[in-house]
Amino acid sequence: MTVSAPETSVAASIIVVRNLVKQFGRFAALRGVSAEFGAGKFHVILGDNGAGKTTLLRALAGLAHPTRGEISILGKTPHEACREIGYMAHPSLLYDEMSGAENLRYFARLYDIAGDERCDEVIRLVRLDPELARPVGKYSQGMRQRMSLARAILHDPKILLLDEPFSNVDVHSAREMVGLLKGMRDAGKTIFVVTHQAALLEGVADEFVWMRAGQIVERTAHLTPDALTPDPPRAGAQ
Amino acid sequence: MSSLRSITLATLTKDIRLEWRSRDAINSMLFFSLLVVVIFSFSFDPNAEESREIAGGLIWVAFLFAAVVALNQTWARELRNQVLDAYRVSPAPANALFLAKALGNFILVSVLEAVMAPLFVIFYNLRALGPAWQLIPVALLGTWALVVNGTFFAAMSLRTRSREIMLPLLLFPISIPAVQSMVEATRILLAGDGSARFWIVLLLTYDVVFTTACLALFETILQAE
Fold first, then answer.
1. What CATH code is assigned to A6-94+157-228?
2. Is the pTM of this model over 0.80?
């Protein structure tokens, strides 16, 4: 197993993380994470529960403020770069009482997107119907995840941060979402996916980033069989 | 500025739509206020003069307690599915969210007051002996005083474990000057003890000070973890 993926640490780094520490009280969720991530790549973040994957993603999105260390996204802080970031969390970040289109129209206003065309376009992109009047609360889990992805890509961000996008989604829908994400990566987007279903992304992802106990312990180009075991690789800590 | 206005309007419209569909807050507020009116009218039977002395306190305390229901609901909606995070990662100004929430609560509490005021008049046999028109600025400024601080403190207690308890603990002490102004002004106007101008100016000052403070501090509250 390779120790690192040097091709992602080239000049085209879109995200630079330096000595990132995030503490919740006495618990350190991130313990000095340092990494550079290349533009236009598909990064998959893996690790056991509590490894710090979601905290890292939330820190990149600007939702978790670092206790120490710094994050640079396109040379800016996450807050300054918010127009370039699309964030999809484990919960849907949608109002259950409104339809998908109503939700997107509201979020479009937050990004100064005028008109309904872009909303309809992204809803179709995730293979849902913009005319669907049913409230999001009555969607199936798969539909909700897709609508959540539509919300994340609404403002056409350069960077997508996706936390467990395939959880509780059937295999067919998950494969559809993977195809969609692959298309976005091919179109130049930088994608980060936190998932426990790494096998879905083998052959699609450019890099697998392994986390353990709040640190990145390994970056590999392929998902090797031993990587599919519950414990991530331990050798080659950064 | 146009972004602030358009996002405030979009958020306000969205909140009114959500409230219209669920009617969570308005139903609870109406039911609570109605209970206060009925229970107090049965508990003691004041004559018209006594009513004028106590009605100001009774009305505003009922509205204050009822407003807490709406204030909690407003933010609880943003916690479901962590929708607030979608706002936090967007470039939308924090103050647009605050203003929309405060205006939404103002509309809700004003509707409640418009519905309940005639009932108070009937149950307590009220008739203003002073300049009744001054009740309008008292109601508008008083309601804004309640909701602006209420919206702020409800957001502040959002991430605490017992936010339903925390909100009154934070809100009620800081609302004492506003509640006293509302109660005194209403009493003066109902009893015909002169003009309530002093209390109206006090309410206006309170509103300006606290609205400014809330707008200055809200971004810190929104971005807090």
1. 3.40.50.300
2. yes
